[in-house]
């Protein structure tokens, strides 16, 4: 019986050796002698299994949407989610596509991706923050202050913003889009007056763009941070802290209701 | 009688040190040949060269007419050996061990395995794992393994090492049996003269890598045997004994003379006639130590 | 020769090492299956979906965010960028790289065990193949048979090859069987991408093509076997050179572990790519992960391994046939 075990193992091993050598052969043929054949792009003919029971939230934009500065990691999207869960029993799915440091041009590109569009198509609500990085450029704008350059930046930003809104509306004409506008993180600095003016103008122009499309709501945050900037800002003096995000989240959430006949 | 193993001018140098300094000897069919020497004399190294484990620096070894170096396979077929301890695979049974080694030699049928098992008397335990064997059983299994290929020459390195007195005796008889009844040449190494003396026909005495002497056991013993005389008065006894034979000296209040078979009573009579009181006559076979001191002129065993 | 190989296989089997290894693999596979299951459940809970596209998209975004955070090392950044491009490629072509199922689990298990786990298992069997004969004294009995020394060593080497094949086989068999109870047994025909080439920071996709998972697996297993053979050969050499099995294991262990560590930090020490232990992750070339040092390719790594293996084999035979046995 023992000698049989040895024989069985030996035979199995020989067969296995053959198999693995064959694998190596396939590898050589596949990896070293493969003719480059262009990969056909698969047409995503998937049936949209948009689960109507589910509430789809999609978040787009930059570090603010990501939640940078909130030590709990929730960000305003997280607080909105918390609020919504108290309001409805529907299961909620959140897709946060925000990228730290993203500028408007980046978002335009991101929205071209098939998967992002697919997500967007399913969305019931879209939240976005954008522009902060365009305007402040990581503090660069404040250090080398130039009205002319800011205007130039703003012009291209507004073009991008328009493209973003247009894309969203084309992909999903129904979803309600909350465009969360800027606050002035430099409120405490000595040139607060000038910066505030710029941010206000920036927000105004952005709201104008948003107004061209249906169901795109510009949500102001400027006022939230106006009085107690230090209490609501993170230690980098730029991003909101936990409390700051909570304020934003609560404000946006308050705009969403689930009363009958609310639908679009 | 034909020579089964012929060794000529065997040398081994390791580094600059010459360990084996030109050995030559032959083994004849049906004889038991003893390799006697203290530990470190080069017995094991020589044996390892005989079985091809160590390559000699120079010299020839031929087994049944085949040169060990050039015709290794044919030559080694005629040798069965145990080098040092009989080390077998402890996780296999005795039978499996034998099967294992049988597979390495062409044309050994299963019957031959049973045959050697019976020969060494291991039938009852052969299917147990070697791990559970006593040293004596392992020694026997080792011999079974060595006999498996019907060798002409059997080489056993310290075969009685670690055996109890009964085991030693059994081993001795077995070795004699193999030589006399089966016609094998057996080479046995040992550092105990008493052992060699009881089972060997001829002996080679080794020291420091050289063979000092090769002779039959009988001759060696005859030459080296001593008689211890305890008598009073001592000086007078010495004088009388000196007339009969050579007095070699005094030791522990006894006179030491050569031993000559059949002469002791005559010498004793002379002593008695001279009025000397002989209290003790003790013939002593030489110990290895004596033999060595004798042969090498004072070299000590270390 | 067949008799000699049979002898060696008998000894390997009777030492029970192969069964111990199979048991270790079974336990580990069970462990990883559970971990993977937990992970899947966790992701599902976090995202509220089991849609892989959403998950992959989320992974891409996570990667992008990590890329944007300050203070990550250059190497890590490069790695992330390549992974990002790859994930994006999968997403664009609608291919789920981690579709659940036993074959996928198997593939991941092989990819993750090729560098350390599999070599360790091989080592357990091979380390005492020759050294135990020397330390147990049975080498004297082996070498005083009418068989030439090179034949004895060759039979041991062949037995080593067979055991390596057996170990890989049991790895495949057990991981398929055990993980399948949880993830299901299907997924052999899942298309996967291969042919990525990494040039600096760029992912070259000109040769990218689709492979069915079974073919992909076969390739990876071939490579895993190759790696195991090379590691086995090196261990075999040490086993010939040394009497102590513990010393053989110690040296191989040190080499393997240092390889795993070095792979993560050698990118600036270019000549380290000629060491065998940083070349073990052959499957990375198939899946398109960046190699630890610039300029390493599948062909290069295989050549390096082959040269180490051949040299080890040569030394083994030279020493074994010439050596005096005391």
Automatic annotation (TrEMBL), chain A:
The keyword rRNA-binding does not apply. It comes from the Bacteria. Keywords: Membrane, Transmembrane, Transmembrane helix. Residues 59-247 form the SGNH hydrolase-type esterase domain. InterPro entries: Ester_Hydrolysis_Enzymes, SGNH_hydro, SGNH_hydro_sf. Gene3D superfamilies: SGNH hydrolase (3.40.50.1110). The chain crosses the membrane at residues 6-28. This is Lysophospholipase L1-like esterase. It comes from Anoxybacteroides tepidamans. The lineage of its organism: Bacteria, Bacillati, Bacillota, Bacilli, Bacillales.
UniProtKB/TrEMBL annotation, chain B:
Residues 5-233 form the ABC transporter domain. CDD domains: ABC_BcrA_bacitracin_resist (cd03268). Pfam families: ABC_tran. It comes from the Bacteria. GO terms for molecular function: ATP binding; ATP hydrolysis activity. InterPro entries: AAA+_ATPase, ABC_transporter-like_ATP-bd, ABC_transporter-like_CS, P-loop_NTPase. SUPFAM superfamilies: P-loop containing nucleoside triphosphate hydrolases. Keywords: ATP-binding, Nucleotide-binding, Transport. Belongs to the ABC transporter superfamily. This is ABC-2 type transport system ATP-binding protein. It comes from Anoxybacteroides tepidamans.
TrEMBL record, chain C:
The chain crosses the membrane at residues 18-37, 116-136, 157-178, 216-238, 245-266, 298-320. SUPFAM superfamilies: MFS general substrate transporter. Keywords: Membrane, Transmembrane, Transmembrane helix. InterPro entries: MFS_trans_sf. GO terms for cellular component: plasma membrane. It comes from the Bacteria. GO terms for molecular function: ABC-type transporter activity. This is ABC-2 type transport system permease protein. It comes from Anoxybacteroides tepidamans.
């Amino acid at each position: 019986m023992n000698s049989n075990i040895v024989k069985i193992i030996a035979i199995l091993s020989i067969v296995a050796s053959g198999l693995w050598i064959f694998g190596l052969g396939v590898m050589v043929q596949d990896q070293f002698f493969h003719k480059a054949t262009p990969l056909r792009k698969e047409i995503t003919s998937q049936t949209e299994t948009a689960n109507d029971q589910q509430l789809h939230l999609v978040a787009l934009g930059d570090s603010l949407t990501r939640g940078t500065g909130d030590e709990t990691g929730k960000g305003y999207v997280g607080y909105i989610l918390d609020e919504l869960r108290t309001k409805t029993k529907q299961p909620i799915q959140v897709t946060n596509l925000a990228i730290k440091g993203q500028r408007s041009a980046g978002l335009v590109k991101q929205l071209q991706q098939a998967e992002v569009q697919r997500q967007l198509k399913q969305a019931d609500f879209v939240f976005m923050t954008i522009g902060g990085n365009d305007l402040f450029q990581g503090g660069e704008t404040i250090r080398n202050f130039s009205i002319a350059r800011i205007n130039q930046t703003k012009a291209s930003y507004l073009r991008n913003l328009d493209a973003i809104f247009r894309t969203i509306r084309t992909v999903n004409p129904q979803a309600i889009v909350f465009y969360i506008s800027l606050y002035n993180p430099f409120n405490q600095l000595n040139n607060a007056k000038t910066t505030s003016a710029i941010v206000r103008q920036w927000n105004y122009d952005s709201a104008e763009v948003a107004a061209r499309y249906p169901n795109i709501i510009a949500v102001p945050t400027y006022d939230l941070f106006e009085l107690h900037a230090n209490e609501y800002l993170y230690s980098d003096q730029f991003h909101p802290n936990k409390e700051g995000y909570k304020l934003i989240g609560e404000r946006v959430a308050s705009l969403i209701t689930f009363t009958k006949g609310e639908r679009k | 009688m034909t020579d089964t193993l012929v060794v000529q001018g065997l040398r081994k140098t390791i580094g600059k040190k010459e360990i084996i300094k030109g050995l030559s000897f032959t083994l004849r069919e049906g004889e038991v040949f003893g390799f006697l020497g203290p530990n470190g004399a080069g017995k094991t190294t020589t044996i390892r060269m005989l079985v091809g484990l160590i390559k000699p620096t120079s010299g020839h070894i031929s087994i049944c007419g085949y040169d060990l170096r050039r015709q290794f396979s044919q030559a080694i077929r005629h040798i069965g050996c145990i080098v040092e301890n009989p080390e077998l695979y402890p996780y296999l049974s005795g039978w499996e061990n034998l099967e294992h080694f049988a597979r390495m030699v062409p044309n050994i049928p299963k019957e031959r395995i049973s045959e050697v098992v019976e020969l060494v008397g291991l039938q009852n335990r052969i299917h147990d794992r070697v791990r559970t064997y006593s040293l004596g059983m392992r020694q026997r299994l080792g011999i079974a393994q060595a006999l498996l290929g019907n060798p002409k020459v059997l080489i056993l390195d310290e075969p009685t090492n670690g055996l109890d007195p009964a085991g030693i005796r059994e081993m001795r008889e077995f070795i004699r049996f193999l030589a006399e009844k089966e016609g094998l040449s057996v080479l046995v190494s040992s550092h105990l003269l008493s052992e060699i003396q009881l089972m060997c026909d001829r002996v080679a005495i080794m020291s420091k890598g050289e063979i000092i002497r090769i002779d039959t056991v009988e001759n060696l013993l005859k030459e080296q045997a001593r008689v211890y005389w305890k008598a009073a008065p001592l000086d007078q006894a010495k004088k009388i004994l000196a007339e009969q034979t050579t007095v070699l000296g005094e030791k522990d209040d006894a006179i030491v003379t050569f031993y000559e078979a059949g002469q002791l009573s005559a010498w004793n009579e002379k002593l008695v006639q001279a009025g000397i009181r002989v209290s003790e006559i003790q013939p002593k076979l030489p110990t290895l130590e004596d033999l060595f001191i004798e042969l090498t002129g004072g070299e000590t065993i270390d | 020769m067949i008799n000699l190989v049979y002898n060696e296989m008998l000894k390997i089997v009777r030492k029970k090492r192969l069964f111990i290894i199979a048991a270790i693999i079974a336990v580990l596979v069970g462990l990883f299956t559970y971990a993977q299951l937990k992970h899947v459940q966790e992701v599902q809970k976090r995202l509220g979906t089991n849609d892989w596209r959403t998950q992959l998209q989320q992974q891409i975004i996570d990667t992008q965010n990590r890329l944007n955070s300050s203070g990550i090392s250059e190497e890590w950044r490069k790695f992330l960028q390549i992974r990002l491009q790859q994930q994006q490629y999968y997403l664009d072509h609608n291919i789920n790289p981690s579709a659940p199922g036993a074959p996928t689990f198997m593939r991941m298990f092989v990819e993750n065990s090729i560098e350390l786990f599999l070599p360790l298992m091989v080592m357990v069997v091979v380390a005492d193949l020759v050294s135990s004969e020397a330390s147990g004294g049975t080498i004297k009995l082996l070498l005083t048979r009418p068989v030439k020394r090179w034949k004895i060593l060759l039979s041991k080497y062949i037995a080593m090859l067979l055991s390596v094949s057996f170990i890989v086989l049991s790895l495949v068999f057990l991981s398929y069987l055990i993980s399948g109870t949880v993830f299901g047994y299907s997924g052999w025909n899942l298309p996967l991408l291969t042919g990525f080439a990494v040039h600096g920071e760029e992912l070259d996709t000109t040769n990218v093509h689709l492979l069915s998972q079974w073919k992909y697996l076969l390739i990876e297993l071939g490579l895993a076997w190759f790696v195991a053979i090379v590691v086995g050969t090196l261990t075999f050499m040490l086993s010939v050179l040394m009497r102590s099995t513990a010393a053989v294991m110690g040296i191989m262990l040190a080499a393997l572990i240092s390889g795993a560590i070095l792979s993560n930090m050698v990118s600036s020490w270019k000549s380290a790519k000629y060491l065998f232990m940083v070349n073990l992750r052959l499957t990375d070339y198939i899946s398109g992960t960046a190699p630890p040092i610039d300029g390493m390719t599948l062909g290069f790594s295989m050549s390096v391994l082959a040269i180490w293996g051949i040299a080890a084999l040569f030394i083994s035979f030279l020493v074994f046939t010439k050596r005096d046995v005391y």
